[in-house]
Amino acid sequence: MLELKKRIGVSCKSDKGFTLIELLVVMSIIAIMSTIVLASVSMARQKARNAQQKTDLKSVALALQSYYIDNSSYPSTGGAWYSSEAGDAVSNNEGVYIPNLAPSYIPALPRSRGGPVSAAPACSGAKNAYRYRSDGTNYKLMIYCGPEGTWTSSDEYYDPVYSSYAWSVCSRSSVCASW
User: Fold this and answer.
1) HSE-up (13 A, CA, CB side) for residue 62
2) Cβ distance 130 to 141 under 8 Å?
3) Which of 54, 86, 150, 177 is exposed most, by the fewest CB atoms within 10 A?
4) What CA–CA distances, in Å, run from 132 to 92, 138, 179?
5) Dist. CA 151–CA 106, nearest whole Å
6) Residue 171 DSSP symbol
7) What is the pTM of this model?
8) How many angstroms separate the CA atoms of 123 and 85, rounded?
């Protein structure tokens, strides 16, 4: 066979292996598929963080209602904002941002899990944190600079004051609209 190839002028190079072009095409396809998978994983993580923050808001709101039933008032901060995170722009009260609630009404107050901060301009240089404010009669609890993605005013946790970078629960809707 080798002699026949030589007579008709066919090269004797080995046909084993891939050409450089074939390898580059395969590597490009793998890179594109990896990018798609990583984007999907990133979106799934974002949705999971958002879902956890909403669950935290609901759990703390239920604990606040239980506290109110027992004490005829909400845990007061004297009208000041308390934050779950040290270094936040508002008083952090050593991380106990809702006085006297844990462990009697909730095992532990949720803390920010880190992660990305909202892309809203107001969050530039800020930390995502749970913030609480109460005068004893009313309260507002929010996750500040934590929500990622987009949402609308029909969202259950929509905050009319900090609409592009916070979710909240309040004792009354008028409190959510004014604090």
Assistant:
1) 7
2) yes
3) 150
4) 10, 11, 10
5) 28
6) S
7) 0.77
8) 14
